Amino acid sequence: LWPPNTAVSWQAILYDRPNLDPWRLHLEFTALVAIWVWRRPRPRKRITLLFAGLYLFALVYTLYEGFIRSYYLLDPIWYNDFPLFRDGAHYVLHSLHLAPIVYFLALAALAGLAALVALLLHALLNTSTQIGSQRVTRWVLLALLVWATAVWLAKGSAMSEPSTAVASLTSKLAHNASLSQEAWQASRQFTRDRLTPFYEQTPADLATKPNIYLIFVESYGSVLYQRPDFRRNYLALTSQLNDDLTADGWHVVSSRSESPTWGGGSWIAYTSAISGLPITAHAQYLLLLNQYQTQTLPSLPNYLRQQGYKSYSISGNADVLPEIEWQRYKLFYGIDQWWRVDELSYTGPLYGWGPSLPDQYAFGYAQEQMRQQGEPHFLFYVTQNSHYPWHPLPPVTADWQELATLPTPSFSTERVPHAVLRQRYWRAIERQLEGLLGDVQTHGRANDLYIIIGDHQPARVANYGDGWDTPIHIVTQDPALAEAFLPFGFVPGFDTEALTPAPLHHAGLYSLLSHVLLTQYGADPTTAPPYLPFGTQQK
Predict the structure, then answer these.
(1) Is 524 strand, coil or helix?
(2) Tens digit of each residue's pLDDT (9 = 90 or more) over 71-86
(3) Would you state the pLDDT for residue 307?
(4) How far apart are CA 393 and CA 54, in angstroms?
(5) Is the separation of the CB atoms in 268 and 285 below 8 Å?
(6) What is the predicted pLDDT for the residue at 128?
(7) Are 384 and 352 contacting, i.e. CB atoms less than 8 angstroms apart?
(8) Which domains does the chain have, with CATH numbers?
(9) For residue range 88-116, what is the model confidence (pLDDT) as tens digits?
(10) Rounded distance between C-alpha atoms, residue 460 and residue 425, angstroms
(11) Are the C-beta atoms of 17 and 165 separated by less than 8 Å?
(12) CB of 34 within 8 A of CB of 145?
């Protein structure tokens, strides 16, 4: 940047620059210090408390903004983020089972931190008063304030961006409030009164009823094509899997689908897919969850229930939620039987996120139980073992029941280099696909249809430039059914590298499956509902 010999260089110094550096101003703090030095207000104790309160508020907001921008790569929107933090904190604290003394100590530590900040600011302001008695210092402060104000007048709401040379808490709050108002207005489309006139189940019937397995693979994103090592390993793995499945009479077609969420919020992705609604935020999800408790949500599981299917799901996470929460989820998603960890006769070690039991065991248990209870059946499952931190991982075994007899693995919880984290992610995806598709080869039947789709990109090893796409695979022994997906952006096999931009969206999955299944297997194919690529849009 120095010496600034171009307009771009001057702009980077004075207004906006993308590089990481500490040489930036804060409009409100610069103004307060300038007023303190020039006016020397009384009483100073109250001004110190005001300054400390503003500083603590700005610090908390900066931590919140930093988390949202770095983890989700999104603008902070309080309307969406508050329920996410509230529910997330409740889930984490419920999982940790902390003693009351821990909460007391945490509150005491926060109070101590606030007091320390107030003392340091008091000392800083007293020092600034002594320094401010020098004329040069006072005029430099005034010049900085004029510069910061000029940037604010020129940039306006753009000062809410982290790259601006002068930050403004006022601009950040105003921008957040504006985005929150837009999010609130957008969420109104998900009220039941507005949805009812056009959001309904198709009356068409299935004549042939395959068993359907809808499996969302955690963190299974198109970043696998964006890194040379990922790409090389992924293409080799999927080529071998395709050969093995083809040799056993299976047909695979694949595509890419744009997820409504990035790096997290799996429930937003799979709820959007099975409901056909373009959900993009936790607040919208909560509106639907709370409204569809006494009435049936028009969704894939509920449509299949009308066709004589029994629907199942399974939770591999060892955390035990209150019974009322489970019942709310069952009603909302239309699940007849939802197995939890304590119902699975599993005595082996738990792994990684949650922690959780092996997905291979959960999937094998579900298949065995469903086949004992008759057909047709529908399984909705979200994998756990490919969730961050991707360590430790369960092995892939020839018999899923062997996993319950393994010893507990030893592992370290220490922070690892990014290169090691990337290796762990790849191994998690590799084992996930090997386990799931190996089970298809071993236990799959001619009347089974598997839909395997990623929920979102992996936050820790991907970035915003990698996009929001996730792979989706259709696995079936019916060649005509596999071929019926080709006109909608699918290609034979697993390789979807050429499919950019993504032909599909998660919200379009429900209508796509309904259209293809009723076209191929419907009692009257002419009554198949249309495919809605972007999901159900309000009329």
Answers:
(1) coil
(2) 777 789 999 898 888 8
(3) 94
(4) 46
(5) yes
(6) 59
(7) yes
(8) 11-188 (no CATH), 191-403+417-527 (3.40.720.10)
(9) 777 666 666 677 888 888 889 988 887 88
(10) 9
(11) yes
(12) yes
Work out the number of other CB atoms within 10 angstroms of the CB of residue 500: 12
The span from the CA of 103 to the CA of 109, in Å, is 10
b vs e for 341-359, b when ≥16 Cβ sit within 10 Å of the residue's Cβ?
beebebebbbbbbbbbbbb
Q: Do 429 and 236 form a contact (C-beta atoms < 8 A)? A: no
Could you report the per-residue pLDDT of 254-313, keeping only the tens digit for each?
999 999 999 888 999 999 999 999 999 888 999 899 989 888 888 999 999 999 999 999
**pLDDT band per the 50, 70, 90 thresholds, residue 486:** very high
Nearest to 200, CA basis, from 511, 505, 512? 511
Place of tokens 């090389």: 232
Token pair 């259709």: residue: 474
Tens digit of pLDDT for each residue in 9-34?
A: 666 666 677 776 667 788 888 887 77
For the segment 426-450, the average pLDDT, to the nearest whole number, is 95
CB half-sphere exposure, 429, CA atoms < 13 A: 28
Q: What integer pLDDT is reported at residue 539 of this predicted model?
A: 44
**DSSP bridge partners of 167:** 26
Residue pointed to by tokens 């075994």: 397
Amino acid letter at 196?
T
- The rounded distance, in Å, linking the Cα atoms of 433 and 441 is 12
Taking the CA atoms of the chain, what radius of gyration do you get in angstroms?
27
> Would you report the helix, strand and coil content of the chain in percent, each value rounded to 5?
55, 10, 35
Joined tokens for residue 173: 């709050």
Asked, as a colleague might, if the bond just before 228 is cis with ω within 30 of 0, I would say no
pLDDT at 497: 94
Q: How far is CA 382 from the centre of its chain?
A: 13
CA-to-CA separations, 432 to 107, 166, 443, 471, in angstroms, rounded: 41, 46, 16, 14
CA–CA distance, 35 with 124 (Å, rounded to integer): 14
The DSSP result for 239-295, as a single string, is HHHHHHHHHTT-EEEEEEEE-SSSSS-HHHHHHHHHH-----SHHHHHHHHHHTTSS
Asked if 353 and 421 count as a contact pair (C-beta separation under 8 A), the reply is no
Is residue 1's pLDDT more than 50? no
CB 451 within 8 A of CB 413: no
Q: Each residue of 455-476: pLDDT tens digit? A: 999 988 998 889 999 999 999 9
Contact 245, 252 (CB under 8 A): yes
Place of tokens 């004589």: 308
Percent of the chain beyond pLDDT 90?
53
Give the count of alpha carbons within 13 A of 418, CB side only: 4
